[in-house]
């Protein structure tokens, strides 16, 4: 979806969003933030709980299961296609940016980078967040193997991924979402929606218009009055409060961007067919060549048999 720069978007940062952790939760969050138009970097070189799984049997869409390496290749490919930068580095610490609202992310090997918002999407270790908030609230003492140690409190974040620290979101698969990969992806998605709502609030959207939907629809639905951009302008103003807190120029910029963003989500039957084909071709990039060749040979044999029967 090609759009102009997001109105009211914060500038002066290396990234709008830094996601720490590139598993299902982190990549799901990154897909949604990047698709909204936020420059997103995903740091991924830590210890993933999913990599302890031998073969993933219950991730929806894979009837025979999916290999862990293949799944990682797929979700990283999806994140990069959406616009994320995958950074193969370990995040050692995150601290507040003293010069502006936001954060400085310190990786193990690369140079520090700045970000307006940070999403924590690592399950095992939240030590890199130490000092960002009330450590007593963020960390808890637990006993493991007969020794006491401090661990990130799995119940620190709210259910929607927000925290008491402005700009810090937690998509880590903790608590009830900490045991299945598909639930972790859902947690990442929910957290990304919360982050985008926060961005929209910063853009100037009133609370009645913070909702964000990421979907693609058939353009045949744009019939009658809804094919007229002026009707969308009316719809936009109908949802505004009496005092939106924006001057006329800001309001027009926000309205036209929002309408363009919405209309870009409608596509033709021809485009649906083209995207469907591209989607299948893209999946082939992640299949073993020997498997593809074997299936092609099988299909060729079926076709020859059908032709001989005729």
UniProtKB/TrEMBL annotation:
Domain FAD/NAD(P)-binding residues, every copy: 15-122
Claim: Flavoprotein is one of the keywords in the record: yes
Gene3D superfamilies tied to this protein: FAD/NAD(P)-binding domain (3.50.50.60)
Presence of keyword Magnesium: no
Keywords: Flavoprotein, Oxidoreductase
A GO MF term: oxidoreductase activity
Pfam families cross-referenced by the UniProt entry: Pyr_redox_2
InterPro entries: FAD/NAD-bd_sf, FAD/NAD-binding_dom, Ferredoxin-NADP_redctase_2
Protein name: FAD-dependent oxidoreductase
């Amino acid at each position: 979806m090609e759009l102009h720069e997001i109105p009211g978007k914060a500038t002066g940062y290396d990234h709008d969003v830094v996601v720490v952790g590139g598993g299902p939760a982190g990549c799901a969050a990154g897909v949604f933030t990047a698709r909204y138009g936020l420059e997103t970097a995903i740091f991924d070189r830590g210890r993933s709980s999913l990599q302890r799984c031998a073969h993933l049997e219950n991730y929806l869409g894979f009837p025979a299961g999916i290999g862990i390496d293949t799944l990682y290749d797929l979700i990283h490919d999806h994140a990069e296609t959406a616009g994320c930068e995958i950074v193969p580095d370990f995040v050692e610490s995150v601290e507040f940016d003293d010069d502006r609202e936001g954060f400085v992310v310190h990786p193990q090997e690369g140079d520090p980078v700045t970000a307006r918002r940070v999403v924590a999407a690592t399950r095992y270790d939240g030590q890199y967040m130490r000092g960002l908030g009330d450590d007593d609230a963020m960390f808890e003492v637990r006993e493991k193997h007969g020794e006491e140690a401090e661990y990130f409190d799995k119940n620190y974040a709210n259910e929607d991924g927000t925290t008491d620290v402005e700009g810090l979101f937690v998509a880590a698969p903790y608590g009830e979402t900490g045991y299945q990969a598909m639930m972790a992806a859902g947690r990442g998605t929910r957290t990304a929606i919360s982050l985008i709502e926060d961005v929209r609030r910063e853009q100037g959207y009133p609370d009645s218009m913070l909702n964000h939907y990421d979907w693609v629809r058939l353009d045949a639905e744009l019939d009658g009055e809804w094919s007229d951009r002026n009707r969308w302008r009316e719809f936009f103003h109908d949802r505004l409060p009496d005092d939106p807190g924006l001057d006329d120029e800001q309001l027009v910029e926000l309205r036209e961007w929002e309408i363009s963003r919405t209309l870009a989500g409608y596509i033709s039957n021809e485009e649906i067919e083209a995207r469907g084909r591209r989607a299948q071709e893209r999946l082939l990039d992640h299949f073993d060549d020997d498997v593809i060749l074997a299936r092609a040979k099988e299909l060729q044999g079926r076709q020859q048999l059908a032709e001989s029967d005729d």
